[in-house]
């Protein structure tokens, strides 16, 4: 579909105070030196994911001495998360999901890992490409426009399930594997 209008910047992205986080982690009335319950929940969630990330890092056969580097990552990231519990402004805080992800990736890179999920991403991309033609054919066969759009949206959500940033999802994936069709069928309405 072509547009005759000129391209314009998305206004939300042009604003200088825009942040991609939509969860209110803290309010102006919160003590800046004390983590909020929401911040603590997120810090704990990321702390609970350390063993999964460590295990994934240990299995990265592109990194020499991956086992000891993964150990360094786990210890250093746990230290940072504990620091944030004591002082939410440490390490560039206050903490939110974006900062916690950035810190995790920074530590992984500092100890020598480029992308601990590269192997699984490559495998999943290959599987996705092999499914593409059939998924498009199936969607094109849906005559009702509303149903076709709903099917596309289900596919987007199902594809997004493979975000291995979730420790629980990563463990499930490693243990049982997942399929695109099963993901589409198991989506909550």
UniProtKB/TrEMBL annotation:
The keyword Membrane does not apply. GO terms for cellular component: cytosol; nucleus. The keyword Hydrolase applies. GO terms for biological process: coenzyme A biosynthetic process. It comes from the Eukaryota. Keywords: Hydrolase, Manganese, Metal-binding, Nickel. Coiled coil: none annotated. InterPro entries: ARMT-1-like_metal-bd_sf, ARMT1-like_metal-bd, At2g17340_3_helix_bundle, Type_II_PanK. Its cofactor is Mn(2+); Ni(2+). One of its GO terms (molecular function) is pantothenate kinase activity. Gene3D superfamilies: AF1104-like (1.20.1700.10). Residues 47-182 form the Damage-control phosphatase ARMT1-like metal-binding domain. Transmembrane segments: none annotated. This is Damage-control phosphatase ARMT1-like metal-binding domain-containing protein. It comes from Scutellaria baicalensis.
């Amino acid at each position: 579909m072509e547009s005759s209008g000129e391209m314009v910047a998305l206004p939300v992205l042009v604003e200088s105070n825009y942040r991609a986080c939509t969860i209110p982690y803290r309010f102006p009335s919160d003590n800046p030196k004390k983590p909020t319950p929401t911040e603590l929940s997120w810090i704990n969630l990321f702390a609970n994911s350390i063993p999964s990330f460590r295990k994934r890092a240990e299995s990265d056969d592109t990194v020499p001495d991956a086992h000891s580097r993964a150990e360094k990552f786990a210890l250093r990231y746990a230290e940072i998360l504990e620091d944030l519990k004591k002082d939410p402004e440490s390490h560039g805080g206050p903490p939110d999901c974006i900062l916690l992800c950035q810190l995790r990736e920074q530590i992984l890179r500092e100890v020598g890992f480029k992308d601990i999920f590269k192997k699984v991403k490559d495998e999943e991309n290959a599987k996705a490409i092999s499914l593409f033609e059939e998924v498009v054919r199936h969607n094109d066969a849906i005559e009702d426009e509303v149903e076709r759009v709903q099917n596309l949206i289900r596919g987007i959500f199902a594809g997004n399930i493979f975000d291995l940033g979730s420790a629980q999802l990563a463990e499930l994936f490693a243990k049982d594997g997942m399929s695109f069709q099963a993901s589409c069928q198991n989506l909550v309405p």
